[in-house]
Every structure is written in structure tokens, then in C-alpha cells.
Amino acid sequence: MVERGEVKEYYSELTDIARTYIEEAIEIPAMESTTDELIAAFKIAVVKKKLSLTDETIKNLEKVLKQADLVKFAKSKPLEFEIADDKIKIEKTIYKIHQSIPEEVEEEELEDNEANQAKILKRKKSKEKNPYPRFCGSCTFYFIGDYCCNKRFRFFKR
Which of 30, 64, 146, 152 could share a disulfide with 22, CB 3.0–4.6 Å? Predict the structure, then answer.
């Protein structure tokens, strides 16, 4: 996309991916929020859900979203290295968000019988953090589990 001069479309899809992931993983209305609203809600959710995210991660997300706003609405033209850097920041942000989401284990499941222990083990295995990102085609963007592949992310299917 960037090679064809479609920088606005690139940033639109890049931020749609990040916003969709945040909306579904953190459960905040990211798609219909402005950048400032999203960041404010995100900061609240980080504290409320006890996510172990650094201020740097939140600032990087905010920088990329604001850069995307400039590209989409003010016809800003970032340099190639800035575009690549923004992509890396979004990749790392999604990965760090995924890593910081705590496992949810219900109290009822903590009973000492084999059936419940098997359920807990199965949940933990399904929630294990995959240190190896998945790639689709020639794109080098992290896929968190099968999340992005099963959604409407045609951005990666080129």
C-alpha cells in the first residue's frame, strides 16, 4: 500500500486493526471514539483491569493514533521510516496488550477434583502466550493467535 502511495488507506487500516483489537480485548468502544477519548478510556481500563502496561506503551499507541489522524484528516505525509516505526509501535502495543490480559479463573473451578483440574489446565493452555507471531503473506505484522486472520483484516491478505 505504502509503495503505491496509499498512505492514508494504510494508516486507516493500521489503526482499524489496533482499535478493533482494543475494542474486543479490552472491551472499550474504540472504533467510535476519537483518539483522545480512546486513550482516556484505555488508561482507565488499564487500571481497572489491572493490565501491566507501561506508560511508554500507552504513549506509543497515542502517538501512532495521532499520526494517523494527521495523515487521514490533515493530509500529512510521514516519511518512510516514520511509517515503518508506526507499524512496529502498533505491533508491539497489540502484543503487549495481549500479554498483559490476566487469566480469568473462576473460584468454582478451584475445587480439588480431576475434572475441574483438567478444565483449568485446558484454559491455561489456550491462554498461553505465543512468543512467535504469526505472519500472513509478505506482511510482517503480529497476529495474536488466530484473532486477526478470522476478522475482516484484508490489510494482511495482500
Answer: 30
- Digit-coded pLDDT (tens) for 43-69: 999 999 888 899 999 999 999 999 999
Residue pair 94/21 in contact by the 8 Å Cβ criterion: yes
Of the chain, the end-to-end C-alpha distance in Å amounts to 9
Handedness of CA 42, 47, 51, 55 (dihedral sign): positive
pLDDT band, residue 38 (cuts 50/70/90): very high
How far apart CA 39 and CA 83 sit, in angstroms, is 21
- Main-chain dihedrals φ then ψ at residue 59, nearest 5 degrees: -65, -40
DSSP state letters, 98-115: HHHSPP---GGGGSSSHH
What DSSP state is assigned to residue 155?
G
